[in-house]
Design a protein that fits this description.
CATH superfamily of chain B: MetI-like
CATH architecture of the largest domain in chain A: 3-Layer(aba) Sandwich
Oligomer: heterodimer
Order of helices and strands of chain A: EEEHEEHEHHHHEHEHEEHHHEE
Number of strands of chain B: 0
CATH topology of chain B: MetI-like fold
CATH class of chain B: Mainly Alpha
Number of helices of chain B: 12
Structural class of chain B: mainly alpha
Shape of chain A: globular
Distance between the termini of chain B: 14 Å
Radius of gyration of chain A: 21 Å
Number of domains of chain B: 1
Shape of chain B: elongated
Low-confidence stretches of chain A: none
Low-confidence stretches of chain B: 277-283
CATH topology of the largest domain in chain A: Rossmann fold
């Protein structure tokens, strides 16, 4: 049994008395020590999926309408608030996109780590503080004994994101969800943070779900990749397989729209059009209005996922040879 | 010490606000040391010297019972501070709790905030009058009533701010680290509300003085035997032509105190509110 097993997850937004589906039947699994990358444009449902796993949709306009999320053998969608609190921060943790706002501005960073620790571990304040310093050292914050008493506004973005990682890793979680952890950081800091996460993974065996819109980041850090488009997984495979055998036109489009530094090109290739809004109803393949391969059939029939290689599933009529 | 310095830094370059703060300190000292500073017992009657003019030994003159107005004014400062602090505590605790809980638990909030709206529909003084007529005249009841009146505005303000803070990523991060509702509200959200609460406190303190004086004057506030500025005005108002100093001194004290507390509040708000200044003092 996988550590995290998401099956047919469906999420909908309540708007004007109607439920508009935004995530439709997403399934993936992740084992210990593995990194799964989820890629896609803005609005494809990747962040909602991660919020659903962490139970952060509660009380909002967005709700889970179907499917299951199994974590370590427990069903998260029906878990009581109290049981969930016991897992959160202890066995699963999350890192957010904006390091500038994800730390409480009125608390010293050390106290925020201490609080997480004391929530889940039977520790005295002194022990928790020592552990916090240890964690800050682990995430390579210089002078951790001094920085433990810093306020968030006294730190840079990269440092804050590292503090967030330290906080997330405080209780050695089995699963870490990182929602665009490097998007708000500049490139050199991005690399450091990603290296740090990879390094910590080899030490602790934590499974990581890395959400990103950057194929480069995914290629560098993930074992498996799921490409999401409009609430569905368009293509899923191991990273090696995916990058050597891209089968969905959307995945190819994503890769083509990355600028290549050492080539001189007039125009950067982009995927034409935009992601359809959530209230547009498309009977066929959600990607067909933007797809270079689209035929009549794509408008009529939604392609079922098909295997083009072992563990490489693609939702496209043209995948793996003619339909 | 650090906080005191931050607080004092708010008054830098603000002459009026500094004067206000100094006046507030004088009132506070008078309130604390009233028994030491007052030359006479505020309740001691000297029928021979009734309605005497300001001078020696009666600095502010005597009222129609022959009580020393100066001593009563000093004890009045004590009452002013008690009423002010009490109302601030009642208003911030009840209003703050209602506002925060309403914003956090949205469904319950709809009900609670409509109740607040109803109370806010009444003018502050009218609401206080209605509540006071239902209750016995006493220091505690005056504090409770004024506290309730200003709890409504506090609830409104904290409702909005909590709603905004609730959407901050650090709240999500706190949920992700396994924090419960209580911990999120009081450990993560409340500390972010300290600055607006302090500003609110200074304004409530000022308005509570005014409100208490008005209630006293109308005979619905503190019991008549309690020496307060409002009671002094109320009792001596018929002697306004014969002994105007009996009204001028307490009246001036009320005005000065309300005005200076407002100045202090303005200074605090200006230095905390980023719209008035870029760099947020302190935290």
């Amino acid at each position: 049994m996988a550590l995290l097993d998401v099956t047919d997850l469906e999420i909908a937004v309540a708007a004007g008395g109607k439920l508009l589906p935004v995530v439709r039947g997403v399934s993936f699994a992740i084992e210990e020590n593995e990194t799964l990358g989820i890629v896609g444009e803005s609005g494809c449902g990747k962040s909602l999926t991660s919020l659903a796993i962490m139970g952060l949709l509660e009380g909002s306009q967005v709700r889970i309408t179907g499917g299951s999320i199994q974590f370590d053998g427990r069903e998260l969608t029906t878990l009581s608030a109290e049981d969930r609190r016991a897992i959160m921060g202890d066995q699963m943790a999350m890192i957010f996109q904006e390091p500038m706002t994800s730390l409480n501005p009125v608390y010293r960073i050390g106290d925020q780590i201490v609080e997480t620790l004391r929530q889940h571990r039977d520790m005295t304040k002194g022990q928790a503080r020592d552990r916090a310093i240890e964690l800050l050292d682990l995430v390579r914050i210089p002078e951790p004994t001094r920085r433990v008493d810093s306020f968030p506004h006294q730190m840079s973005g990269g440092q804050r994101q590292r503090v967030m990682i330290a906080m997330a890793l405080a209780c050695d979680p089995k699963l870490l969800i990182a929602d665009e952890p490097t998007t708000a950081l500049d490139v050199t800091v991005q690399k450091e943070v990603l290296d740090l996460m990879a390094d910590l993974q080899t030490r602790t065996g934590t499974a990581i779900v890395l959400i990103s819109h950057d194929l480069g980041v995914i290629a560098e850090t993930c074992d498996k990749v799921a490409v999401m488009y409009r609430g569905k997984i368009a293509e899923a495979a191991t990273t090696r397989e995916l990058f050597s055998n891209m089968s969905h036109p959307y995945t190819r489009g994503l890769l083509n729209s990355i600028p290549v530094v050492d080539h001189d090109v007039e125009w950067l290739e982009a995927i034409p059009g935009r992601v359809p809004t959530i209230d547009e109803v498309l009977p066929g393949c959600a990607f067909h209005p933007r797809c270079p391969l689209a035929e009549d059939r794509c408008n009529a029939e939604d392609p079922a996922p098909r295997d083009v290689a072992n563990g490489h599933a693609v939702r496209c009529h043209f995948a793996g040879g003619a339909a | 010490m650090k906080y005191l310095r931050t607080f004092l830094a708010m008054f830098k370059g603000r002459k009026l606000a500094t004067i206000g703060l100094i006046w507030f300190c004088i009132v506070a000292v008078a309130a604390i040391a009233a028994p030491l500073l007052a030359p006479f017992d505020p309740l001691e009657i000297d029928p021979v010297a009734r309605l005497s003019e300001p001078g020696t030994p009666y600095l502010f003159g005597t009222d129609h019972f022959g009580r020393d107005s100066f001593s009563r004014a000093i004890y009045g400062a004590r009452m002013a501070v008690i009423i002010g602090l009490g109302s601030v505590i009642v208003a911030l605790v009840t209003g703050g709790l209602i506002g925060m809980i309403s914003a956090y638990f949205t469904r319950l909030g709809h009900v609670l905030m409509r109740g607040v709206d109803v109370l806010m529909a009444f003018p502050a003084l009218l609401l206080a009058l209605v509540l006071m007529t239902l209750l016995e005249r006493s220091v505690t009841n005056t504090i409770i009533v004024i506290g309730i009146v200003y709890a409504t505005t506090t609830a409104r303000i904290l409702f909005g701010m909590t709603l905004k803070l609730k959407g901050e990523v650090f709240v999500d991060a706190a949920i992700c680290s396994g924090a419960g509702h209580g911990s999120i509200l009081f450990r993560h959200i409340l500390p972010n509300l300290i600055s607006p609460l302090l500003v609110q406190a200074s304004f409530i303190f000022a308005f509570a003085q005014l409100q208490a004086a008005a209630l006293d004057f109308l005979g619905l506030g503190l019991p008549p035997e309690v020496p307060s500025w409002g009671n002094m005005l109320s009792e001596e108002r018929i002697y306004v032509t014969r002994a105007p100093w009996l009204l001028i001194f307490p009246g001036a004290l009320i005005i000065l105190s309300v005005f200076s507390m407002n100045l202090v509040g303005d200074a605090m708000r200006d230095s905390i509110d980023p719209r008035f200044k870029d760099d947020i003092a302190g935290v």
